[in-house]
Design a protein that fits this description.
Maltoporin, Chain A, 22-stranded antiparallel barrel, mainly beta, 720 residues, five-stranded mixed sheet
Length: 720
């Protein structure tokens, strides 16, 4: 990889940060005589089995508690909470109309908006739609307790778009009748975020609720935002039974879209917006409500779990190429049985289940007319100048339904050896009902059903009680989303009958465990072969609209490493990912991209954070180092790498029965100009979504202490 002197200097500084942290740790460990209490092992449920510890599963799993080892987070985005997970790239597009881009081993890197290729859950309730897309704008982060992440296609038991799974778990309710905390953040560009988080327990019912309002002008031109998000969860427990109800809501009347820039434009003025986005007033307005219910009941020899959810979403989305309106209804239900049995002298932990989902979208596209100064003749596509939207160009109902069954068996061979086998069978049906039919516009209705069978197998050996070695092989598939299926380069409505789902096969091995009592590590190697990889592209006359095609075959070879050290007042976290992703066979339009690197994924990426506490004081310094990456399939343009550092500190003294915390944070400490997000294969060289420059923010919270201290994180301390 070519590196510049500035990049090498940043790399040296990054390593120095890690070494300094280790030196400080050694000094603190010498001075700190008290031992951190051992806690019970963390039990993860993201594997869809009967529940196991991170060390007891033959897959790459990570559990993070966002506010535990890295206090003072703003809860502004999931990318902030999921930093430092090995193999996971979390990048903010710095665009209030678009969600962060989450990529696990390259799955999700193609996303133009929302999340693709990764299943996202909230307390086990799917946020990912049956077509594989996940909007994150209605996900509240104020009451998160921990986040479970399964990396790679070993998560195939979740079906479509399971290149990885992220399950956001709500913290446990307070043991008192009511407990709460009021938080407020303010910073540059008139940024303001106010949140109220409450919880309590009474009469066998535990509940958690929060609401947050965010507003600001944004770090770029044309990037204002006003949004309110709410969350509530209640759980009722009985002997052998547990019932839960979850509500998520969003009211987002304005999120402006500044678009992407060329490299020259970004270097000249990183606060600028794409002129077309401003001229056509690109933005979005969203409201959403989703409700889910779940029940778990102990039955003879195991546990039966049932869940159901439903939701509605309304989107008004003026873009540079069209004005898009979507009215969406979603439903889903799941049933699962988990139990134990003995056969052939071995202990079997069995799980089987059925998932169903339905997505019903009413989509209308209009001609974008915000920049017209006179009615457009002779077509009259914009009959009222400057009205924002002209005639309807697409009016159709898009129905996507998915159903899948899965079975898994975790086999305990002996105290040190175990194996896991499983499979899932899926069918995803896409249907379009054209509502815009005339003599000049034929009926473009149609339907397609995409099927897949996804097996998975893993083997785990406990080298010691705190060190595991594992290997697995798995397959997964990912369908195009309804939007991707409908965006056809020839402008027709209906569905792209040539677009196929991508299918992958992964071989992985790794080791995870503890060194001593206070050091946790996680190392994984993998190779993934993908057939028919879904690739985005633009054409110059599309005004920013993205289309999709299948590459022949691609290969992904990678390595991941994570290290956590925590003792007394100091904790250090670090992660590194090496990604060598290439097109093995890809020819399109007379161009041969075989042998090129897959764009949008840097070959090297590292992150580190160090946290120090001293009584009521705390301080955090974080660094990220990303290598360069290609921006297009032809590898004709390389987006430069970057290094960036953040710092924050605060005080949380006790005052009576309440706690006051004040936090001062500085993002982009050295005021670097860089783009953390790259729009792959964008037309006219508009690849770059610039990150903010140096931003100073202040946060104040008052209420009862509800967050764990850095030295009380079960994900770090060695279990009994």
């Amino acid at each position: 990889m070519k590196t510049t002197p500035a990049f090498r200097a940043a790399a040296i500084a990054f390593v120095a940060l890690c070494l300094l942290g280790l030196a400080l740790f050694a000094g603190c460990a010498e001075a700190q005589q008290q031992d951190t209490a051992r806690l019970e092992p963390v039990v993860v449920t993201v594997t869809r089995g009967s529940g196991t510890s991170v060390l007891g599963s033959p897959f790459a799993l990570t559990v993070v508690r966002p506010d535990s080892l890295r206090p003072g987070l703003r809860h502004a985005g999931l990318d902030e909470s999921l930093a430092l997970v090995p193999g996971l790239s979390t990048t903010s597009r710095n665009n209030p109309s678009q969600d962060p881009r989450l990529s696990l081993r390259g799955f999700g890197a193609r996303s133009a908006f929302g999340v693709r290729g990764i299943r996202v859950l909230r307390d086990g309730m799917p946020l990912t739609l049956p077509d594989g897309q996940t909007p994150l704008d209605y996900l509240s982060l104020e009451s998160i307790g921990w986040i479970e992440t399964m990396r790679g296609s070993a998560s195939a038991l979740y079906g479509n778009s399971s290149g990885g799974v992220i399950d956001v778990r709500t913290r446990e309710p307070a043991p008192t009748a009511i407990d709460g905390e009021l938080r407020h953040w303010t910073g540059g560009d008139t940024y303001s975020r106010s949140a109220l988080a409450l919880s309590g327990s009474a009469g066998g019912v535990g509940w958690v609720a929060d609401a947050a309002h965010t507003s600001g002008d944004g770090s770029r031109d044309h990037s204002r935002q006003t949004s309110t998000v709410g969350f509530a969860r209640a759980v009722y427990g009985l002997p052998g039974a547990r019932y839960g109800l979850t509500v998520m809501a969003l009211d987002n009347p304005l999120s402006e879209n500044p678009g992407a820039l060329t490299l020259e434009e970004m270097l000249l003025n990183p606060r600028a917006a794409d002129p077309a986005s401003m001229r056509r007033n690109a933005r979005k307005s969203v409201t959403q409500l989703q409700v889910g219910a779940a029940a778990e009941q102990a039955v003879a020899g195991g546990e039966l779990a049932l869940s159901a959810f439903g939701g509605a979403r309304s989107l008004d989305n003026p873009l540079t190429f069209a004005v898009v309106e979507i009215g969406r209804n979603t439903w889903g239900a799941s049933a699962a049985f988990r139990g134990r049995a003995t056969g052939a002298g071995l202990l079997h932990r069995m799980a089987m289940g059925l998932d169903t989902q339905l997505q019903n979208d009413l989509r209308r596209n209009y001609v974008a007319c915000a920049d017209t100064i006179a009615p457009t003749a002779p077509t009259m596509s914009c009959p009222v100048a400057g009205s924002g939207r002209g005639v309807v160009t697409l009016d159709q109902r898009e129905i996507v339904s998915g159903a899948g069954v899965y079975v898994s068996d975790e086999i305990e061979i002996n105290e040190r050896l175990s194996a896991t086998i499983g499979f899932r069978a899926d069918a995803v049906r896409f249907e379009v009902r054209d509502r815009l039919i005339s003599a000049d516009n034929p009926d473009d209705s149609g339907r397609r059903t995409l099927r897949s069978f996804s097996p998975v197998a893993g083997f785990l050996a406990r080298a010691t009680s705190t060190v595991s070695l594992y290997a697995n092989v798995s397959s997964a598939f990912e369908t195009p989303t309804a939007t991707e299926m409908g965006n056809q380069p020839d402008g027709r409505a209906g569905m792209n009958s040539d677009l196929e789902p991508q299918r992958s096969l992964t071989i992985e091995s790794g080791s995870k465990g503890f060194i001593g009592q206070f050091v946790r590590y996680d190392v994984a190697l993998f190779r993934t072969a993908v057939r028919d990889e879904l690739i985005p592209f633009e054409i110059p006359e599309s005004d920013g609209r993205r289309y999709f095609r299948n590459a022949g075959r691609t290969s992904r070879v990678g390595a991941e490493a994570g290290l956590n050290v925590a003792r007394g007042p100091l904790s250090i976290m670090g992660s590194y990912s090496m990604s060598r992703f290439r097109f093995e066979n890809f020819m399109t339009g007379g161009s041969d991209f075989t042998g090129n690197e897959i764009p949008g994924v840097p070959r090297h990426r590292g992150q580190a954070a160090a946290t120090v506490t001293a009584g009521p004081l705390f301080g955090v310094i974080e660094g990220e180092l990303s290598g360069s990456s290609f921006a297009d399939d032809a590898n004709s343009f390389r987006a430069p790498g970057y290094s960036v550092f953040h710092a924050r500190g605060g005080i949380s003294p006790r005052r009576g029965s309440a706690r006051l915390r004040v936090t001062l944070g500085v993002q982009n400490l050295f005021d670097r100009t860089y783009a953390s997000s790259i729009a792959v294969n964008a037309a006219r060289g508009r690849y770059f979504e610039p990150a903010p420059g140096r931003v100073v923010s202040v946060g104040v919270s008052i209420g009862a202490a509800s967050r764990s201290r850095p030295d009380a994180d079960p994900a770090v301390i060695v279990p009994r």
